[in-house]
């Protein structure tokens, strides 16, 4: 079973879209196992967007990400990493597919409402950056019984 990290960025809070964004992941069938609202520290931003540290947009991205609280969510499910990326849409929101969160609600490249883990960037490490083991809750989600007992698992 996979886990992935979602962060609703400050524009989600400012634009009153937090509920609608969570609802997209929820109705897809991903299981929420952790959630917290926080201000991201300098250190965590530098770790999280470390690969962009030398890019000209890094300072602006850091300011933006620290301009208001964010909501971090850990989602679990079958191929959850790709499923969450699929419904989030491509980075440049104005070009993202209709029906995705970015495609339906955003126009920005920086202000694209959500971060979702990239499989190439170690989602487990991203989760550990923001959540301790005690913050992640184990429970039985009834619809998973059917999903996980089906032929899809091959
Ligand atoms: P994604 O969030 O879709 O995984 P990336 O990992 O490429 O995309 O980029 C991380 C975040 O950095 C983006 O979501 C966006 O907020 C910001 N970003 C990326 N490229 C730019 C850019 N050229 N100018 C401003 N912000 C950018």
Please describe what this structure looks like:
With 154 residues, the protein is of the alpha+beta class. The chain has one domain: Nucleoside diphosphate kinase-like domain (Alpha-Beta Plaits), CATH 3.30.70.141. The chain contains eight helices and four strands; from the N terminus they run βααβααβααβαα. It is globular. The model has no long low-confidence stretch (mean pLDDT 96). The chain binds adenosine-5'-diphosphate. The site of adenosine-5'-diphosphate has 8 residues, from loops.
Q: Can you lay out the helices and strands and say which pair or pack?
A:
Elements: E1 2-8, H1 10-14, H2 18-28, E2 31-38, H3 42-48, H4 58-65, E3 70-77, H5 80-88, H6 101-105, E4 114-116, H7 123-130, H8 142-147
Antiparallel strand pairs: 1-3, 1-4, 2-3
Distinct helical segment count: 8
Question: Helical proportion?
Answer: 25-40%
Poorly predicted parts: none
Q: How many individual domains?
A: 1
How do the strands of the widest beta sheet line up side by side? Answer: 2-3-1-4
Query: How many beta-strand runs?
Result: 4
What is the CATH topology? Alpha-Beta Plaits
* Beta-strand share of residues: 15-25%
**Which class in CATH terms?**
Alpha Beta
Bound compounds, each kind once, are: adenosine-5'-diphosphate
Described by the principal axes of the CA atoms, the overall outline is globular
- Roughly what is the average pLDDT, rounded to an integer? 96
Question: What class would the helix/strand composition place it in?
Answer: alpha+beta
The major beta sheet can be summarized as:
4 strands, antiparallel
- Radius of gyration from the CA trace? 15 Å
Order of helices and strands: EHHEHHEHHEHH
Distance between the termini: 14 Å
């Amino acid at each position: 079973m996979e886990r992935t990290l979602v962060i609703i960025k400050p524009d989600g809070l400012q634009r009153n879209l937090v509920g609608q964004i969570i609802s997209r992941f929820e109705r897809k069938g991903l299981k929420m196992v952790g959630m917290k609202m926080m201000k991201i520290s300098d250190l965590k931003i530098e770790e999280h967007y470390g690969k962009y540290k030398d890019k000209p947009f890094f300072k602006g991205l850091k300011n933006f990400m620290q301009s208001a609280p964010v909501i971090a969510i850990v989602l679990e499910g079958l191929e959850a990493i790709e499923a969450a990326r699929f419904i989030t849409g491509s980075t440049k929101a104005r070009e993202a597919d209709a029906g995705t969160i970015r495609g339906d609600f955003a126009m920005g490249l920086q202000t694209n409402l959500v971060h979702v883990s990239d499989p190439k960037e170690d989602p487990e490490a991203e989760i550990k950056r923001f959540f301790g083991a005690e913050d992640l809750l184990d429970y039985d989600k009834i619809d998973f019984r059917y999903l996980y007992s089906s032929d899809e698992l091959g």
